[in-house]
Amino acid sequence: MDFLIGCAVWSHKGWVGELFPPKTRQSQFLQLYSQHFDTVEGNTTFYATPNSQTINRWIEQTSPKFKFCPKLPRHITHNGKLQPLISQALEFAEIMRPLGSRLGPIFAQLPPSYHPHYLEDLTVFLAAWKQTQLPLAVEVRHRDWFQPINSLNLNLCLEAYQVGRVILDTRPIYTEATDGEFWEEMQLERKKPQLPIDFSLTAPFTFVRFISHPILEVNLPFMQEWVIQIQAWLQDATQIYFFVHCPQEDFSPRNAKYLQSLLEIESDFGF
Description:
Layout: E1 3-7, H1 29-36, E2 39-42, H2 44-47, H3 52-60, E3 67-70, H4 74-77, H5 86-96, E4 106-109, H6 119-129, E5 136-139, H7 148-160, E6 164-169, H8 171-174, H9 183-189, E7 205-211, H10 216-235, E8 239-245, H11 252-266
Parallel strand pairs: 1-2, 1-8, 2-3, 4-5, 5-6, 6-7, 7-8
Helix pairs in contact: 6-7, 10-11
């Protein structure tokens, strides 16, 4: 399957009675989640690195076709330059390696403070990461990365090491809409950067983070655009990891499933 869709997490109690049957225990969340979705963005690893017992449980509860996309820990990505922490990043890669076929791209989210002046630092880091032979995707958040010359240099760097460039689409949460009961969650979520979208492919896969609005209708024009782009990628045999977020996590699965239904209606690829 070249198109994999999922959410940011698999463990959300608000999904009990909706995505999960009533009275589902938390220990069953991952197994049930993996019956609905192909992949998950492993945000949990950003805050804590799992031990081998946890990794083994993940393996036991999912099929070999399911993909985990673990996030590099924040102490690696959010402490200035990456070079001093290369050994820790490589250690993290080895901790994740036992996932085997279940391991999708590892995901490095760089903070807004990591600006284009750090391109050489990033290049050295990626050269070191190459020895792991594990797929990696990088998200940049400093706006200057999106200036034409900086964007080109970044893409050339990523392409040289076959590293994916994460696409962060926050347009739905910045759309002028009535937030209503979701006002508080929306204000918090709007701390995410409003950045241009660069569809450049720098690896055999692409990694999309779609920050959806709790009100389904607000997302529709953006979802329809994504259906067209996804179809184009599929025609080129690009593997797609597509993660649907929502400020109100209760609605992430609904929004993800709706996007998938649009693809099924419009696509000839068979999902």
